[in-house]
Amino acid sequence: MTPKIFIDGEHGTTGLQIRQRLEGRTDIEMLSIPEADRRNADLRREMLHAADIAILCLPDDAARESVAMLDGNTTTRVIDTSTANRVNPDWAYGFAEMDKAQAAKIAAARFVANPGCYPTGAIGLIRPLVSAGLLPATYPISVNAVSGYTGGGKQLIAQMENAGAEDHIASPHFLYGLSLAHKHVPEMKLHGKLDRAPIFAPSVGKFAQGMLVQVPLHLDLLAEGTTLARLHEALADHYAGQNIVEVLPLGTATSAPRLDPTALNDTDRMQLIVCGTEGNGQVNLVAVLDNLGKGASGAAVQNMELMIGKAA
Ligand SMILES: NC(=O)C1=CN([C@@H]2O[C@H](COP(=O)(O)OP(=O)(O)OC[C@H]3O[C@@H](n4cnc5c(N)ncnc54)[C@H](OP(=O)(O)O)[C@@H]3O)[C@@H](O)[C@H]2O)C=CC1
Ligand SMILES: CC(=O)N[C@@H](CCC(=O)OP(=O)(O)O)C(=O)O
């Protein structure tokens, strides 16, 4: 039977990108609502119940509403791209590479929470090192990041691109999340296997897509004797055998002195880079990804493939 897929929020930034990725597929059937009716609750309910998989590309409150609309339904499976369910133990966390068993968990799950874009980078760097016993769960982690402005959805896109708008942002780069209570922190702590919430310092640059996520560490606060080579080896071992998360060779940082947040735009991949100089006691772990690729829509499609049994 051809799986029926409904994207609730298909006309937003993440939804449109998922639609593009699924265009022309004959092995799935797309259920759709015209853009003008995108907020019509009756139509949404009808589609949610008719779908085999509903992909929610909505703000948190609207995503919760969609899940509530499925009350009594036992067949529709859900991938939620919002923050609403990412630390909910009843939902599978949709980061297939974070553990060897995760892809199978996603494949079997009824409810899947797609990770946030920043947490994909941060957890992708942190979790394998905690699991390997190199990074203590108590380490006072900082996560510093820059994102393209599509990360803020239609509203931020309009603020950045529309010079005539009252709330136009002219700044070429800005910090935000200054209250240190960003909605991604609980997810980074839980799925990063950290005991202590990381300090998260996000920023936005005047470019549409792309992202760098940095986790700087002091080696003397890690497991005794940890070197850059050992950290690199642990990451490379963890991600061996798949082709979405790539650990770049040790030394990349010295041969390529700049890292470009847009380097993986329009791909669904993520690259991890171990930066520093062996022997000087510090490391900066960096993830490069497209916030709309592995950071959102690419991951949602990857999860859908797992759920319909099509993933490699
Ligand atoms: N952009 C990104 O890089 C990432 C986004 N996400 C998450 O994906 C989700 C969607 O974000 P994004 O695509 O960026 O946001 P957008 O604002 O671009 O799109 C959201 C869409 O949802 C629609 N919508 C809003 N409220 C309702 C409602 N009550 N009922 C029906 N439709 C509604 C909007 O319609 P309208 O035009 O009328 O407002 C819009 O089409 C969010 O939860 C976000 O946090 C996750 C990872 C990365
Ligand atoms: C640049 C920007 O504004 N980014 C968004 C996060 C984008 C994202 O990952 O969305 P989720 O929160 O659903 O994960 C923010 O910081 O709120």
Automatic annotation (TrEMBL):
<dbReference type="InterPro" id="IPR058924">
    <property type="entry name" value="AGPR_dimerisation_dom"/>
</dbReference>
<dbReference type="InterPro" id="IPR023013">
    <property type="entry name" value="AGPR_AS"/>
</dbReference>
<keyword id="KW-0521">NADP</keyword>
<keyword id="KW-0028">Amino-acid biosynthesis</keyword>
<protein>
    <recommendedName>
        <fullName>N-acetyl-gamma-glutamyl-phosphate reductase</fullName>
        <ecNumber>1.2.1.38</ecNumber>
    </recommendedName>
</protein>
<dbReference type="InterPro" id="IPR050085">
    <property type="entry name" value="AGPR"/>
</dbReference>
<dbReference type="Pfam" id="PF22698">
    <property type="entry name" value="Semialdhyde_dhC_1"/>
</dbReference>
<feature type="active site">
    <location>
        <position position="117"/>
    </location>
</feature>
<dbReference type="Pfam" id="PF01118">
    <property type="entry name" value="Semialdhyde_dh"/>
</dbReference>
<dbReference type="InterPro" id="IPR036291">
    <property type="entry name" value="NAD(P)-bd_dom_sf"/>
</dbReference>
<comment type="similarity">
    <text>Belongs to the NAGSA dehydrogenase family. Type 2 subfamily.</text>
</comment>
<keyword id="KW-0963">Cytoplasm</keyword>
<dbReference type="InterPro" id="IPR000534">
    <property type="entry name" value="Semialdehyde_DH_NAD-bd"/>
</dbReference>
<comment type="function">
    <text>Catalyzes the NADPH-dependent reduction of N-acetyl-5-glutamyl phosphate to yield N-acetyl-L-glutamate 5-semialdehyde.</text>
</comment>
<feature type="domain" description="Semialdehyde dehydrogenase NAD-binding">
    <location>
        <begin position="4"/>
        <end position="106"/>
    </location>
</feature>
<keyword id="KW-0560">Oxidoreductase</keyword>
<keyword id="KW-0055">Arginine biosynthesis</keyword>
<dbReference type="InterPro" id="IPR010136">
    <property type="entry name" value="AGPR_type-2"/>
</dbReference>
<comment type="pathway">
    <text>Amino-acid biosynthesis; L-arginine biosynthesis; N(2)-acetyl-L-ornithine from L-glutamate: step 3/4.</text>
</comment>
<dbReference type="GO" id="GO:0003942">
    <property type="term" value="F:N-acetyl-gamma-glutamyl-phosphate reductase activity"/>
</dbReference>
